[in-house]
Amino acid sequence: MFRRYPDKKTRETAIITLLNQSPNGLTQAEIARLLDYPAKMVMEDLQRLEDKGILLWQDERNRLAIFKSAPH
Description:
Oligomer: single chain
Largest sheet: 2 strands, antiparallel
């Protein structure tokens, strides 16, 4: 039988929460594994988050984090 995944908004919230709890960032593969989502779904969700204005930072090891500006 086919597996049902949460809706887009729920997945996006889960990704944001996970990234906010990961001070060293996570790769797309790690996000997919930790949330038990297909890698392609995570890639699409990350793209949609960026399209919505959520700024993602990626380091040289392809680890992603939510970009936060320094306080003024």
